[in-house]
Specification:
It comes from Onychorhynchus coronatus. InterPro entries: Aph-1 (IPR009294). One of its GO terms (cellular component) is gamma-secretase complex. Belongs to the APH-1 family. By secondary structure, the protein is an all-alpha fold. It has one domain. The protein is built from eight helices and no strands.
Length: 232
């Protein structure tokens, strides 16, 4: 259902496709830089020190989150300049796409690229060698990974809306809330293989972020009720 966001809301609009691909590229660059720094840190450290290696892994995850949000801010600044250019070129002085729509599409771009890499890693693990749960561990690795991938795609979409709204209205606490939620979701993965410890808080944060993004986008309880009852 997460990849349906692209099919039903973006695929028919060429401008949205361009914004989505650019957003995916920004996320990819942030991942490349964070992976490079983590790789260098691991190489120059003692591989026999398990405590140090675990600390470097935690550092890598936290640094990657912060770098992703930094690139989200850079992408916001780029799109803001793009809107000014579109307004200057348009005949009626209006942009063909609003900043709210850009925030949604950029969030989907971040989420889809994140989900694509999660799926690639999952499929690579599925090739073997070994059997999931053969030593008594949980056999729900692939199922929970799929659910975690889906929640991250949705969260990136909602975070994009919240982040852009905070930048647009100078509400820095909204930006800080996005960073904290991102750190919380990523940090909860260290609870695995106790998957309840990562999935439950992630889905709770997704519900809260979804409601928050819906309200900031101009939604209301009345509109939601009319949608659920198909009263358009």
């Amino acid at each position: 259902p997460a990849f349906g966001l692209f099919l039903f809301t973006i695929a028919r609009d060429p401008l949205r496709i361009i914004i989505l691909i650019a957003g995916a590229f920004f996320w990819l660059v942030s991942l490349l830089l964070s992976s490079l720094i983590w790789f260098i840190a691991v190489k120059v450290s003692d591989p026999q020190d398990e405590r140090l290696q675990k600390g470097l892994l935690i550092f890598g995850v936290m640094f990657s989150v912060l770098l992703q949000e930094a690139f989200r801010f850079l992408y916001y600044k780029l799109l803001r300049k793009a809107i000014e250019g579109l307004v200057a070129l348009s005949e009626d002085g209006c942009s063909p796409i609003s900043i709210q729509q850009m925030a949604y599409v950029a969030g989907v771009g971040f989420g889809l690229m994140s989900g694509a890499f999660s799926m690639i890693n999952l499929l690579a693990d599925a090739l073997g060698p070994g059997t999931v749960g053969i030593h008594g561990d949980s056999q729900l690795y692939f199922l929970t990974s799929a659910f975690m991938t889906m929640v991250l795609i949705f969260l990136h979409t909602f975070w994009g809306i919240l982040f852009f709204h905070g930048c647009e209205h100078r509400r820095w606490w909204e930006i800080a809330a996005v960073v904290v939620m991102h750190l919380t979701v990523s940090g909860s993965s260290f609870c695995n293989p106790l998957y309840v410890g990562s999935l439950v808080p992630s889905y709770m944060l997704m519900a809260a972020a979804a409601a928050w993004a819906y309200l900031l986008s101009g939604g209301s309880a009345q509109n939601l009720r009319r949608f659920l009852l198909c009263k358009f």
